[in-house]
Description:
Elements: E1 2-7, E2 12-19, H1 21-38, H2 51-79, E3 86-87, E4 91-96, E5 105-114, E6 129-132, H3 136-149, E7 152-155, E8 165-175, E9 178-191, H4 201-207, E10 215-221, E11 235-249, H5 255-259, H6 268-303, H7 310-328, H8 340-366, H9 374-385, H10 391-398, H11 402-425, E12 429-432, H12 434-439
Parallel strand pairs: 6-12
Antiparallel strand pairs: 1-2, 2-5, 3-5, 4-5, 7-11, 8-9, 8-11, 10-11
Helix pairs in contact: 1-2, 6-8, 6-11, 7-8, 8-11, 9-10, 9-11
Amino acid sequence: MQVSIEQGEGLKRKLSVVVDEKEIAKARNAAMNRVAKTARVDGFRKGHLPQDILLQRFGREVAEETINSIVTETIEDALEKLDAKKYGQPEVSDVKGNPLTDKEMSYQVNVEIDPELECKPLNELEFKRLSCTITEADIDEMIDDMRKQRAVWRDDDELVFAEGTRATVDFTGRTDGKEFEGGAAKNFELIAGETHMIPGFMEQILEHKAKKGDSFTIKVTFPEDYQAENLKGKDAEFDITVNQVAKRELPEIDEAFIRSFGLKSGKMDDFRAQLKKNMEREKNRLVRTYNASRVSNALTKQYGEFEVCSDRIDSAVEFEENRLRSYYKIPENRELPFGEEAKKQLRENATRRARVSKIMETLAAQGGIKLGNVKSIEREIDNVASVYDDPASYRRYVRTNKKEYRALTSVAYETDVLDYILKESGVPEEQVSFQKLIHEVLPDGSTTENED
């Protein structure tokens, strides 16, 4: 077999493979034996057809089998000639020659290499490792939030809208003297100190010390980064009518309150212990997610842009599309309803994810981390099982569900790689409260504070 390699654009390579008479004969004989086993011709026993009759009656099948065998038997050896250990899905084309008569055959393989990446020092990564410790004060605050969830609102015609009260209002907004889309609402509920509106909106209503029946106009300015393009930085005024003001009545923290959350004992110590367990689980999930984002951003900055094979990008695009379908509940048989700019952004995000995947894979090899570590998989199974009332039942289920087990295998591998990077990088720690962790950390792992 002879192999010549032509370098194409970027990572593309074209292999021209020439197979000699000896290899053709070997593949042809094997193909004839396979076809002969199932060929049926009157007057001959199954599997005992003379070669000339076999080729006369089933020559086309033998030829196809031979070509498939030639490609299957030689392509791996041909790909080993590439200037990379890994490559994308090869595409075979331009098969030439008759395997039944010719002494030489050839075919071409188009493939993209997945080049080696040199590891950069982990101790040069620039980011802060997010950390959080659950305190008794955090548990107190969680109980306060749970009381608010079970609160009862009592209307009071003489009540002034102030901290801890709720106002039900109608409002109509205008810019440049004209009403704008989405700028009006009826019976909209505002809770002082909790509802977030554009700057100045809540503050001015509170300044009016509003009661039921009051009507007035406030003036605000939309932020420059407001999501609606036509409202960014625009001055606006809103006509406000207060329909009702109500005060919140919080439930007592007694056995009935505790039991309403599924804790049969009704005891405060058990309640706090259960809350801490749940909060720890959520904290661990968020810290891992946000640290993964911070590591991803830091690696992207450290390694910069580099070429990755399209197979990696296509897999990342599929991941992004599945994520969007899940979020927006779009079935697989429907096209994503996004314009060209959004599709371009999606591919850019996918390319970035593909690069990070390549970097992480390279670092995993450096750290001796492999997919399928049983101890790590068991750790992830235990993490998920702890959520269930019957953990043992989940453990039995996951070991019989291949899809679920594969998913946890991937999570275990990614967690091992992340832990390796966090350990070896030696980056400083950023300690945040539980409330900040769940309310103020952004999806990319950044906080309101500047990490620099």
